[in-house]
Design brief:
Largest sheet: 8 strands, antiparallel
Oligomer: single chain
Number of helices: 18
Distance between the termini: 11 Å
Strand content: 15-25%
Bound molecules: 2-deoxy-2-amino glucitol-6-phosphate
Radius of gyration: 25 Å
Length: 609
């Protein structure tokens, strides 16, 4: 859950590291620090954001170093718990992302051998283990790192620098991402590509158990058993500007407005208007296998699980395959019914969510084949899965997921259509209609985004409410859940998403004249029922804010605020109707003075279980 950056080259490392850390803040931002090798090894670290670190840090001259931005897991956010960590001699420093499960046991043994610990973190054991491994003088830094890693159980991406090896960074990874960037006369290391994109586009993603040694002039890669390996760098095509705010006040705002483009990119080349066919690059499963499928199990967390709930309806209706949605964090707590005729479909923006990855591994261990819907090429989920369908949303920096969600919905629909095509369960004429509607979707999203002014007025009116209820039915029920989650995470207002028909079985007791009820009610097969649910709410003084189709006046007499959205194919209504809910949460949070891009207690990618 942390960000790592490393640099070896002719420039002042401090500048490169601080700039990289700034771009990595979405991975964690409760404390940060750097270790620079110049005339000796110097470490500077502090609690708080990178901007605080930059403004208080003295000039540390040197051309090689590592940096870290933290999201606390083991040990509270504090200066002593910030990375990098030094060994007892102060001549070697380590940064780490991940969790070491046996750190208490290792720490006890190290303390018994005279090591003094200065923090509460699991990471600090690396500094001491490596120092121990170097003590007999028989190993170089790389070998000492390897020997230390052999003793730990858990997940890690680490980077180590030492005053005794002033020209090299040793890095290793297991289950936490790490990428090496190749420059000219300089090389880079990062937990995420946006941190180094400004400097290089040629990268190698380290695989599980691999180790890298970077100097200014070379990168050496080593496999799990210490053998030297070679791998050709791949070129990253993202533009640097795509990872920046582009004039928007917040990344989240930029990302909401990027949705028409993100959706268009995700559909591009996959849906043929002429034949009404869907082709999916990355769908490396045979037609025969698709036809033999007995079940789909979708594993996901948070917003991605809401996309999964929509996906379930799409796959069951269109491809007629029984589908269930499992929260990554819960899947392994049961004894799940999964076998070789189950497709485990992981939905994950980052591809690094530990709970989702654990669920994928559990399903694979029981014989299921794995597919990932993911926004990050080369991520762990993409590498674990047999097939990966990429959402082409581009980097999503705002912690609250927006464009990643809508593009997940697009890919899930494309997948349902593709499965239905292979299984012959969908009338080709209906498929062609949906494909046509998909192609028109980006333009409709533009129109919906242009309702921002009105949503802003809603936010001004409702931002002081203490609770919200979101209601939807059928395909819009997951959107009610997503609207409520967005409001909670951004504005810290309590909100619940409910199936509209379930309201009368409990939440109706909450309704009074203080409760705003946000209803998503397109003109679909469920409209009449939602309408009567809302009449029940209005009869109890509930204050209704409704999203309805243009021309629908059915709620005018009971709703306090109504937003009209363009007519859309019912399968695409979730994608369209979630956008005003994202904007509502965004504007309420801004008015309340909340940190929109980095809500409290949250991290973009949750890499611990
Ligand atoms: C979304 O706004 C949240 N930040 C969170 O629920 C997120 O969707 C969840 O942690 C899953 O992340 P993933 O898609 O990267 O796996």
């Amino acid at each position: 859950m942390c960000g790592i950056i490393g640099y070896a080259g002719p420039r002042e490392a401090q500048e490169v590291l601080l700039d990289g850390l700034k771009r990595l803040e979405y991975r964690g931002y409760d404390s940060a620090g750097v270790a620079i090798v110049g005339s000796g090894l110097k470490v500077f670290k502090d609690k708080g954001e990178i901007s605080k670190l930059s403004s208080t840090m003295p000039r540390l001259s040197g051309h090689l170093g590592v940096g870290h931005t933290r999201w606390a897991t083991c040990g509270k956010p504090s200066q002593p718990n910030a990375h990098p960590f030094l060994d007892c001699t102060g001549k070697m420093a380590v940064v780490h992302n991940g969790i070491i499960e046996n750190h208490l046991e290792l720490k006890a043994a190290l303390v018994a051998r005279g090591h003094e610990f200065k923090s509460e973190t699991d990471t600090e054991i690396f500094a001491h283990l490596i120092a121990d491994a170097l003590a007999d003088g028989n190993r170089d830094l790389r070998e000492a790192v390897r020997a230390s890693l052999a003793q730990v159980h858990g997940t890690y991406a680490i980077a180590v620098v030492s005053e005794k090896r002033p020209d090299e960074i040793v890095a290793a990874k297991n289950a936490s991402p790490l990428v090496v960037g190749y420059g000219k006369g300089e090389n880079f290391l990062a937990s995420d590509v946006p941190a180094i994109l400004e400097h290089t586009r040629e990268v190698v993603y380290l695989e599980e158990g691999e180790l890298a040694v970077l100097t200014a002039g070379a990168v050496s890669l080593y496999g799990r058993n210490g053998e030297q390996i070679s791998r050709k760098p791949r070129r990253i095509e993202w533009s640097t500007v795509a990872a920046e705010k582009e004039g928007h006040k917040h990344f989240m705002h930029k990302e909401i407005f990027e949705q028409p483009r993100a959706v268009a990119d995700t559909i591009r080349g996959r849906a043929s208007l002429e034949q009404g066919d869907v082709t999916l690059d990355g769908m490396e499963l045979t037609e025969e296998y698709v036809r033999s499928l007995q079940r789909v199990v979708i594993v996901a967390c948070g917003t991605s699980s809401h996309a999964g709930l929509s996906g379930r309806q799409m796959i069951e209706s269109v491809a007629r395959i029984p589908t269930q949605v499992e929260l990554g964090s819960e899947f392994r707590n049961r004894d799940p019914l999964v076998d070789e005729r189950t497709l485990c479909l992981a939905v994950t923006q980052s591809g690094e969510t530990a709970d989702t990855l654990a669920a994928m591994k559990e399903a694979a261990a029981r014989g299921a084949r794995g597919m990932a819907i993911c926004n990050v090429q080369g991520s762990t989920a993409a590498r674990l899965a047999e097939a990966t369908l990429l959402t082409h949303a581009g980097p999503e920096i705002g912690v609250a997921s927006t464009k990643a969600f809508t593009t997940q919905l697009v890919v899930l629909l494309l997948l349902a259509l593709r499965l239905g095509q292979a299984r012959g369960t969908l009338d080709p004429a209906v498929r062609a209609e949906i494909v046509q509607a998909l192609r028109e979707l980006p333009a409709l999203l533009e129109r919906v985004a242009s309702t921002e002014q009105k949503i802003h007025q809603w936010a001004q009116k409702w931002h002081e409410a203490t609770d919200f209820l979101y209601l939807g039915r059928g395909p819009l029920y997951p959107i009610a859940l997503e609207g409520a989650l967005k409001l909670k995470e951004l504005s810290y207002i309590h909100a619940e998403g409910y199936p509209a028909g379930e309201m009368k079985h409990g939440p109706i007791a909450l309704i009074d004249r203080h409760l705003p009820i946000v209803a998503v009610m397109p003109r679909d097969a469920h409209r009449e029922k939602v309408l009567s649910n809302l009449q029940e709410a209005a009869a109890r003084d509930g204050r209704i804010l409704a999203l309805v189709e243009e021309g629908d006046t059915g709620l005018d007499h009971i709703a306090e605020d109504v937003l009209h959205l363009p007519k859309v194919n019912p399968w695409l209504a979730p994608i369209l109707y979630v956008v005003p809910l994202q904007l509502l949460s965004y504007h309420i949070a801004v008015i309340r003075g909340c940190d929109v891009d980095q809500p409290r207690n949250l991290a973009k990618s949750v890499t611990v279980e």
